[in-house]
Amino acid sequence: MIVKDSLKYKPRIAVDVRPLAYGINGNSRYLAEILQRVLNENSPLEYYLYSNKPVHPVFHEITKKAPVFIPSRLPGLFWLNLSMPSAFREHRIDIFWGTLQLLPIFGRNIPMAVNYHDLNFHSAPETMTTANYWQHRFFSPLTLKRADKIFCLSKNTQREIAEFLPSVAGKLQVVYPGAQGFENVVPPNKILPKNFLFSVGTLEPRKNLNTLLEAYRTLKRKNLDYPFSLVLAGRLGWKSEGLTEILRNGSLESEGIFFIENPSDGELGWLYKNCSYFMFPSLHEGFGLPLLEAIQEEKPCIASDIPVFHEVLDSQIDLFVPPKDTEAWIKAMLEAGDRGVRLRDGKSRKWSWDSTAQEVEEGLVTLWKNRKRKPGKIEE
User: Fold this and answer.
1) In the structure, what pLDDT confidence band is assigned to residue 154 with cuts at 50, 70 and 90?
2) Entry's InterPro entries (predicted)?
């Protein structure tokens, strides 16, 4: 992917690659797919990658393509505001691209872009840890004001930000994710039943997996011959200690519930390709990349009835369910059981990571071309 734009000078752009330190999740996949496409000698920008923690081995091929700096072991917020401004000066950085919804509030006055996947501290605070909530409650408004460009994962996120802080509406740009299927799929080490419902996500309250589990267990107690098992996959998160314990120890496998912890890309691809239905019970999402990945694999989907899923995937989802309504989830799973195993009629529209990467890089190039000196203080 090459942005067709020529600049007399090749600006140096610092990228916050902390999402790549935690393995595969929605944030890291979005960033990794973009970096895979923009890190090349023909790019109009010169990329420098920064993290306060080592990059996860699964992303090492990406980080071979650009300088990677880990200048500090400070916690993220302190690293961002204390270490990064020094790195900007040392490496003569021209632009900063923040990928975790936060920017350094002080330091060198350079153009800055930031990704916003959601506005959970405002719209779904109950799903966050206390520390994370207060961090974003205080620093997100400052970040939104300081940013010159704000990449939103969906129109729903764009709308939420514009309503929360109308003064930044002109900085917002929607850049949808892509999906392209999985290569080199491999089955998980755990033996799974042939027919299964599948859901993937970090174990945290926002993913609403407790409701899905409660619905499935209730259904199985009443319908012993129900044809589908339930497979959950993902990494450990927060505020889900009880759920984590019962999934990890395998005590639910006798009820037909299986857990794959930290699946590789190949294992994740196998689970998508072999599931009978994909279930996505989230309370709130910036977009919902796993849902898009399931649709690209032509799998029928049962998802929460939340605005972002109607935005671009409305006609592709088989059933919408009120997210906290256990009885409605039971009814939806019964309907899936009655239909049996099937594929969708056809693939959805083309969701291209090439297009996503091009839009982001073009946005960064435009940011550089339109740069101007800003006062040191943050203004409305």
Assistant:
1) very high
2) Glyco_trans_1, Glyco_trans_4-like_N
User: 124 and 219 share a domain?
Assistant: no
CATH number at residue 313: 3.40.50.2000
Record the tokens describing residue 145, joined without a space.
Answer: 């004001």
218 and 269 assigned to the same domain: yes
Verify that 93 and 224 share a domain, yes or no: no
Q: Quote the percentage of the chain above a pLDDT of 90.
A: 60
pLDDT band at 107 (very low <50, low <70, confident <90, very high): confident
Q: Is residue 7 in some structural domain?
A: no
What is the pLDDT averaged over residues 230-251?
83
4, part of any domain? no
Question: Which structural domain, as residue segments, surrounds residue 42?
Answer: 12-178+353-369
Same domain as 360, residue 263 = no
List pLDDT tens digits, range 3-27: 555 667 899 999 999 999 988 888 8
Residue 50 sits in the same domain as residue 170: yes
Mark whether 221 and 330 lie in a shared domain. Answer: yes
pTM of the model: 0.84
Whether the pLDDT of residue 333 is over 50: the answer is yes
- The confidence score (pLDDT) of residue 346 equals 46
Q: Is 9 exposed, middle or buried (0-12, 13-18, 19+ CB in 10 A)?
A: exposed
Distance CA 155, CA 130 (A): 27
> Do 170 and 108 share a domain, yes or no?
yes
Asked if 269 contacts 183 with a C-beta cutoff of 8 angstroms, the reply is yes
Tens-place pLDDT, residues 352-380: 899 999 999 999 999 999 986 544 433 33
Interhelix angle 353-369/26-38, nearest 10 degrees: 70
What integer best gives the mean pLDDT of the chain? Answer: 88
